[in-house]
Write a structure and sequence with these properties.
DNA-binding; about 200 residues; homodimer
DNA sequence: GGTCCCATGTAAGGTGTTACATGATTCT
DNA sequence: AGAATCATGTAACACCTTACATGGGACC
């Protein structure tokens, strides 16, 4: 019984509340669910079938009015046990291929003037994410106060991950702003060289 | 002519110096090449063939003594043009499925005492990476001084990426240490609750 | 009349990993 | 004697993405 990360991602959500495949996809698309990656709905359905085959989840069909029927999945005691085991298991380091950093690695080949809009655009995207995460964190802190770190509910999980989201985006943005300042200096220098030479 | 990210990663290295498939794999395994992901050598060979088919690289067989022959690839003018175009093209946001953060999301299901070794081990791994990146950065700064940000050589690319490596690992570590402190408080509280109740 | 949301799935194709095949030299 | 390094590749498999299939209701 091998379970891919997506399987655990699904169990992680079903451990909180029963959901349909469509619900799971919606949950994973939320900005504060950044760590799930963008899972395609077409991949979630077969993964749910597999989890059901393994008896880690059970399903019931819910008939709806004016909407298609939905298949709602509930985590089983075995499933809960499985995720509890997985949560405290060792995690290998995640090494990701980053398009943006490979571009930075080759930035010596580019013109600073041309690279700047690209960097500014990227910074803008990350700024947007940061704002969303910060809003979510502020909401949580207002609601739960200092107690949040001691809660034994799902809010504790949300708190840990949203904190990471905020600090990740802050770090990324400050690196981007540092790089943009360098590119501006390079562009200015090149421009002066052009006009004075 | 579609080129996957691995193709650009390879061009990014060949833009600096001619290399064999084996050399490329070795370069990508270096700690400061973290942003390439761990590319398998078995995937690099067919990708190189494809780049050659597209005439973005050329190859020659080098006969060696006491070692197998090697096929050394050189970037072509078209290849250089292609990566220069790519470097300043827009980059979609990278959303990665993170095993560790999915575990954090479900950490409310776990015992703090059991989760602590897992978090400490993870922090240790990241600490090691940070040390390696910092050593590399220090070396660079010592060698090139303040000029480094204005260089129009490959060292500029290395500088940008290693700076990101350092700040990423610093951020990750400080989040991990914050989480560890919380887990310690939870463990202590649970322990007191057990003995006093 | 067109697009989006709800809802579940299949099929095809692309990407990436692990295992296999081969074999000499160097290090422990 | 065994493992690691050098060196290139193929084959099988696992995982993920994109496109296709279906269809009612709500909104513009």
């Amino acid at each position: 019984m091998y379970i891919p990360t997506l399987g655990y991602a699904i169990l992680s959500l079903l451990a909180r509340t029963p959901l349909s495949g469509y619900d799971i996809a919606r949950e994973m698309k939320r900005p504060t669910s950044f760590f799930f990656g963008h899972a395609q709905i077409s991949q979630i359905y077969p993964e749910l079938s597999r989890l059901e085959e393994y008896e880690l989840v059970t399903s019931i069909i819910i008939e709806q009015q004016g909407k298609p029927d939905k298949k709602v999945y509930t985590i089983s005691p075995t499933g809960l046990q499985e995720i509890q085991r997985w949560v405290v298991s060792p995690t290998p380091l995640l090494e990701v291929r980053s398009d943006f950093l490979i571009k930075a690695h080759s930035l010596w080949l580019a013109d600073a003037e041309e690279a700047l809009p690209h960097f500014r655009e990227h910074a803008r995207y990350h700024q947007e994410h940061l704002v969303a995460y910060e809003a979510n964190l502020a909401e949580m802190e207002e609601r739960w106060g200092a107690n949040i770190a001691l809660l034994h509910t799902q809010e504790f999980g949300d708190y840990l991950t949203v904190k990471r989201g905020v600090s990740y985006e802050q770090e990324y943005l400050s690196w981007l702003e540092w790089a943009i300042a360098i590119l501006e200096a390079r562009a200015k220098r090149q421009c002066e060289g052009d006009t004075s030479g």
